[in-house]
Every structure is written in structure tokens, then in C-alpha cells.
Amino acid sequence: MTPVPPSGVGDRRPLASRDTALARRACLALVARGVSPNAISVFGMFAGIAAGAALAATTVVPDAARLLCLVGAAAIQLRLLCNLLDGMVAVESDSASALGELFNEVPDRIADTAVLVGFGYASGFTWLGLTAALLAMATAYVRALGKALTGTSDFGGPMAKPQRMFFVTMAALYLGLAPSGWLPTGTWNLPTLVLATISLGSLWTALRRLRNLALRLRADAP
Q1: pLDDT by residue (tens digit) across 27-74?
Q2: What are the residue ranges in the chain where pLDDT is below 50?
């Protein structure tokens, strides 16, 4: 007997925001204008790149660091909005293409990497941003491997894409809005703490998904 899959396993990431009236209206508006899901995915990728560039630029233009953090936070949310809408538009317009999986995955990996590496530059520890990006990619790799082997994806956390982007967004907003006296300084500044949390959480997530996959494969074996 096939076991009940763990929470977060399925063909689409479980998102409560997908069922909101605002998301539905935005989806219908895009469908009415003939915007393709792949175009939305690519736009989301560029939003992620813009977010990473804005966060990285805080070390180059320190006088504009607060504004750049706010721009970065907004661009991250725009990227996530595109991630939400591309799948909704594909379903609503019945316009999924043969290359849909590529457009769904590749821009996401580029955007994730851009945001985390950009935040690594902001922290002063580029290697920490690269580490977070590598471990984030590991979570996506295990998910994609699971889908290839079982037909379903494990979107479980604790540090899946929405959680990673939530942490960076909240940190960027804090850096952009908090009084100067409230900002942590020194080696363990806020970006460093957030990237360390994301790295450890992503490692845990990748290992947890790998364990879940192994259990599913063992249970389904004849």
C-alpha cells in the first residue's frame, strides 16, 4: 500500500495566497492580455536579479543603503508574485508549454542565487551568500530528483523558497527602516545572521527531503 506522502508533497507548492481574490484578479487580468506563463517566469527572474543587485550595491553606495534595501525587499516580493502567477496563468489559460518546466525551474534558481549572493555582498561575507545559494539549490535539486523518481515534489521546509525569501525581505526592510542605533554591527551583522540561518535551515531542509524521498522509494519498492 502506498503511504500518505509527507506534508508539502504534491505537484504544486501549497500557497494560501493562490486562493486570494487579489491573486485571482491579477491572474485573470494577465490571461485577458495574453501574457504567457513563461514570460512571467522570466520577468520574475529579472526581479530577483534586480533584488540581488540592489542588496549588493549597499556596500558600493553606503549613503543610499537604506533605499537600496527597500528596493531589494520590493523586488523580492515582485519575484515571488511572479512565481505565484506564472503557474496560475498556465492553469487558467491552459497554456502550459513543453518548455514550461524549464521556465519554471531555471529562472527560479537564477533568482534565488542572485538574491542570496547579493545579500552576501551586503553582509561583507560573499562566501556566506554563496554557501546559502548552494544549499538553497540543494533543496531544489532534491525536490526535482524526487519528482523525477516519484512523480511528485516535496515542498517541505523548514527553509523552502518562501521562507528563504521571507527572511531576506524582513531583514532588508529592517535595515531600510530601523533607527541606526537598532542595527547590529560588527562581524555578526544582520545579513550575516540571516544568511547563516538560511544556510543551516536549507541544509536541514535538503536532508529532510532526501530522507522523505528515501522512505517513499523504499515504501513503493516491490
Answers
A1: 999 999 999 999 999 999 999 999 999 999 999 999 999 999 999 999
A2: 1-5
What would the DSSP string read from start to end of 22-34? HHHHHHHHHHHTT
Q: What is the CATH number of the domain that holds 206?
A: 1.20.120.1760
The alpha carbon dihedral of 86, 44, 101, 205 has a sign of negative
Torsion over CA: 77, 69, 165, 183 (sign): negative
- Does residue 8 sit within a domain? no
Domain coverage including residue 100: 16-220
What residue type is assigned to position 157 of the chain? G
Residue the block writes with cell 550595491: 57
C-alpha cell at 50: 534586480
Q: Name every residue whose Cβ is closer than 8 Å to that of residue 208 and which is 6 or more positions away in sequence.
A: 156, 158
Residues in the chain: 222
Q: Is 188 helix (H, G, I), strand (E, B) or coil?
A: coil
Q: Taking the chain, what is the end-to-end CA distance rounded to the nearest angstrom?
A: 10
Beta bridge partners of 10: 153
pLDDT of residue 56: 97
pTM of the model: 0.90
In a domain, 11, yes or no: no
User: How many folded domains does the chain comprise?
Assistant: 1
